[in-house]
Structure formats: structure tokens, C-alpha cells
Amino acid sequence: MEWFEEYYGDVALKIKIKKIIADFHSKYQHIQLFDTFEFGKMLVLDGKIQLTERDEAFYHEMLVHVPMFTHRNPEKVLIIGGGDGGSLREVLKHDVSEAVLVELDGEVVELSKKHLGIDNGAFEDPRATVLIEDGIEFVKNLGERFDVIIVDGTDPNPYSEHIMSREFYEACSKIADVFATQSQSPFVQPDYFKKMFDNISSVMDVRVYINFVPTYPLGLWSYLIHSDESPSLDDIEKRFADRGIRTEHYNPEVHAASFALPEWVKRIVKDR
Ligand code: SAM
After folding, report:
1. Where does the chain bind S-methyl-5'-thioadenosine (predicted)?
2. Ligand 1 pocket member 55 (CB < 6 A)
3. How many domains are there within the chain?
4. Which of 50, 173, 213, 228 could be a cystine partner for 221, CB 3.0 to 4.6 Å?
5. Residue 51 beta carbon below 6 angstroms from any ligand 1 atom
């Protein structure tokens, strides 16, 4: 039986594969979908785990619900990346009027619809619009405003380098009330994390939050959020109760706790 291995420098995570569902190269990346014994289906792009069925909610719920509950009334939402549909599924749990997903690689969307299914029908929801194009180009000179913009982008690679550029964040800051992005592992990729933090903070105020995602590099994952509004825990609890959303990982206590940072993470954003 085969094993999948993801390397983080000289360290690796090894997961036993039950079946290879797909393995091909799109115009942009190497796409693999496996069935595994421990984690269910697992999507891998360019050798890096993007999600597994067992823990994808840990990631998608924190990426989406922290910004969505930070906004008092999110109606129009933009997702950049996220072609697997997990973020779209979580956004549509809120009473939004419109959710636009802009994914560069149509093959990720097609494969996810056909063989993964974590979108739970989100791609067919009448409130959803899926555009297959470059999300960075899309936000440039966009006249429209969005209540929330969420960046569910890939790990660092040549074709998505601009997804962490100052210009991209500046364009987003002009059209969003609340902005959030995944920001990799501060432990495994501190330089990349710091660069994202610096680029965003050069155009808008930003806060870091973290959580545990077992199949991401060594488990600790980070996110960055900008919001003009700073709701209290009471506000978040009230919004959570009012919106009646069912989650697996996220709740208001986890939301508040995710902003408690260890000293070493604080030092990365302050000092390096
Ligand atoms: N959950 C993942 C993680 O952090 O490991 C990320 C999700 S993955 C599905 C991210 C998606 O972003 C990929 O499908 C990739 O094609 C897409 N992407 C990369 N660069 C992009 C860009 N410039 N515009 C839109 N989508 C992009």
C-alpha cells in the first residue's frame, strides 16, 4: 500500500493511501485527489495537502466565520481561491445575498464537484457566482464593494506569488469592510507569514489569529484579519445565536481564544 509524504524541509508527514482518485497536471499545478484510511478524501496541490475530509472544517470554519461574525451584517462576500468549495459552503450558511468565488484553476472546481463534494451543493446555490479567472486581476480597479473578502489561496508558488503582494492587499482594502486571509504556518514558514503580515499592515490594520489544523504543516495554522469594527465577545455570541449556524469547530469562545498569541508569534510580527 502506498504512502503520501509531504515534506517541510527535513521533516515529513506521511499518510497511508487507500486509493488514488485523480492525479494530473492542470495548466497551473499538479492536482492529486486521494482516498486515505485516516483522513478520508485528501486534495493535494503541487505536493501540498490543501484539505482532508476529516479536518477541513477546522480550517474553513476559522477562515470564514471569524470574518463573517466580525461583520455585523455581511451580505456581499468575495472569496479569492477556494476552488474546492469549502469556504463557499461556510459563507452560504450566513444570510448573504451574494457570494462570488474567483478561482484561477477551473480543474480544481471540476474535480471537487465531481469527486470531493465538500461544497455540499454550494456551487449550485443561486446566491453563488463562480468565476474562473485570476483573483488578483479581478480585484484591480473593481468598482464594486464587498462586505467581506476572504482569501483562500494556495501555499507560496510562482503563479500565485502576487496573492500576497502589497498591491493586491491595497486593492482589497479599497473595496472591503472586513478582509481575511489564510497566512500559512508561523512555525514552519515564519518568513512567508511575516511577509504577508508586513504587506497587509502597510495598507490596513491587521490582527493575527491561529488554530489547530492537524494535516497542515505541524498542525498550527494562522490567519490575518482586518476590520474597522471590533465586536466584543458578547456581540459575537449574540450574532452566533441570532444566525443559528451549525458548525463543527468554530464557536464564539474559539473565535475569541484564537486571537490569544504565544510570545514567539507576537515577536515574529513585531521584531523580525
Ligand atoms: N485550503 C488550502 C490551504 O491553505 O492549504 C487552500 C485552498 S486551495 C483550493 C487554494 C486555491 O487557490 C487553489 O485551487 C488555487 O488554484 C487557487 N489560486 C491560487 N492563486 C490564485 C489566484 N491568483 N486567483 C484565484 N485563485 C487562485
Report:
1. 29, 103, 134-135
2. no
3. 2
4. 213
5. yes
Q: At which of 50, 66, 87 does a domain end?
A: 50
CA distance 116 to 53: 9
Same domain, 116 and 208: yes
For residue 180, report the distance from its CA to the centre of ligand 1, in Å.
14
What are the catalytic residues? 152
- What pLDDT shows up at residue 156? 67
Residue nearest to atom 1 of ligand 1 (CA): 50
Per-residue pLDDT, averaged over 193-219, amounts to: 96
- Among the candidates 50, 65, 81, a domain finishes at 50
Are 197 and 236 members of one domain?
yes
CATH number at 214 reads 3.40.50.150
pLDDT tens per residue, range 89-110: 999 999 999 999 999 999 999 9
Domain span including residue 133: 56-270
**Ligand 1 in reach of 217 Cβ (< 6 A):** no
234 Cα: distance to centroid of ligand 1 (angstroms): 33
Choose among 177, 168, 182: nearest CA to 148: 177
Residues 71 and 138 in one domain: yes
Exposure on the CB side of residue 160, measured as CA atoms within 13 A: 20
Backbone phi and psi for residue 216, each to the nearest 5 degrees, phi listed first: -90, 160
Q: Tell me the percentage of the chain whose pLDDT exceeds 90.
A: 92
Annotated binding site for spermidine: 60, 84
Instruction: Examine the domain organization and report whether 146 and 211 are in the same domain.
Output: yes
pLDDT one-digit tens code per residue, 131-173? 999 999 999 978 899 999 999 998 767 667 788 899 999 999 9
Q: List the binding residues for S-methyl-5'-thioadenosine.
A: 29, 103, 134-135
Q: Tell me which residue has its CA closest to atom 5 in ligand 1.
A: 50
**Phi and psi angles of residue 49, each rounded to the nearest 5 degrees, phi first:** -65, 125
* Nearest residue by C-alpha to atom 20 in ligand 1: 160
Tell me the whole-structure pTM to 2 decimals.
Answer: 0.97
Q: Which helix (H) or strand (E) holds 260?
A: none
Q: What CATH number is given to the structural domain containing 9? A: 2.30.140.10
